[in-house]
Write a structure and sequence with these properties.
It contains 14 helices and no strands. It is mostly helical and about 300 residues long. The protein has one domain: Na+/H+ antiporter like fold, CATH 1.20.1530.20.
């Protein structure tokens, strides 16, 4: 019952968003505008205010980041191997497929789930993961997709373009600026701080609502076999490897370990579809993987929430 009370408010808001789009109470343009507002304003403001207020530990537990990203890298490489041997995908398709296997929806789903399940203290380790998540994965994906032309000027131009886009994105920029304000202890005018706090409070429910509207967009479009492999690697094997490292191999703060575990178990992130659309390959299996993993995460996340709450 306690787990239901934790996950049910999240599901209700997602369902309202889904029905609003599915029943056409909101048009496609309306949903896109809301999503743009969430990604460009509300989520960055939440990340900024959270980073500013975060109490950064004196001794950073590097094993925490190592555990998450070594598991992510393993899943990405495994995805490339399976894409080549099982599905006979091209080099670019292998990269996009692996992106779906390893890219967590750590903002729209991750922030509200970690906040509800673990409390505000979980925001700092989550922000640390988020600070390099896109940069790490998109760099890896770019290299993997274009590894046959790594020395060409075209590749360098594309890579620098992606790097610039990531660094200047609202989410990454908000984390960088918030971290600088925190470290340098730059004061923020109280009225401005209050305005930011009010907007940040709207980020979580609005993000969940946007997730619901996106489910109406990313439906099952076929290519079930590769999509199921994506879901299995992303929502089962990835969190298992993270659990193995953070709870069994390294001696990591329990709250930070739980945050890493929950983040790794998030459904496939929408940015994986954007990456597939950029290369115009594997769009159907990625979209199907997003839908299946998001729906099935109701069960997988409920189990993990019960586990992490029992060990904290």
């Amino acid at each position: 019952m306690e787990i239901l009370s934790t996950i049910l408010p999240i599901l209700i808001i997602v369902l309202i968003g889904f029905l609003s789009a599915n029943r056409q109470y909101l048009s496609r343009n309306d949903c896109d505008s809301i999503a743009k507002f969430v990604f460009n304003y509300l989520i960055p403001i939440l990340l900024f205010t959270g980073t500013v207020k975060a109490e950064i530990p004196d001794n950073m537990q590097w094993e925490f980041l190592f555990s998450y990203y070594i598991a992510l890298f393993f899943i990405y490489v495994l995805g490339i191997v399976l894409a080549k041997l099982v599905f006979n995908f091209s080099v670019v398709e292998q990269s996009v497929f692996s992106m779906g296997c390893s890219y967590s929806n750590s903002t729209i789903v991750g922030i509200p789930v970690c906040l509800y399940a673990l409390g505000e203290r979980a925001m700092l380790p989550l922000f640390i993961i988020l600070s390099i998540h896109n940069l790490f994965l998109f760099t890896l994906g770019c290299f993997a997709a274009e590894r046959g032309s790594l020395l060409t000027k075209e590749f360098i131009k594309n890579f620098l373009g992606i790097l610039k886009q990531l660094v200047t994105s609202p989410i990454t920029s908000s984390l960088i600026i918030g971290g600088m304000v925190n470290i340098l202890q730059i004061p923020i005018y109280s009225a401005v701080q209050e305005s930011l706090n009010l907007m940040s409070q709207a980020a979580v429910p609005t993000a969940l609502f946007t997730l619901g509207t996106s489910l109406n967009k990313y439906k099952i479009h076929g290519h079930i076999a590769p999509a199921l492999v994506i879901v299995l690697l992303k929502t089962l094997l990835f969190p298992f490897l993270v659990w193995l490292l953070v709870f069994q191999v390294f001696n990591i703060n329990t709250l930070w370990a739980a945050t890493a575990l929950l983040t790794s178990a998030m459904p496939v992130g929408i940015s994986a579809y954007i990456f597939s659309h950029q290369y115009n390959v594997c769009e159907a299996p990625i979209a199907t993987g997003i839908f299946i993993s998001t729906v099935s995460s109701v069960i997988t996340l409920s189990v993990l929430i019960a586990y992490v709450q029992s060990v904290i």
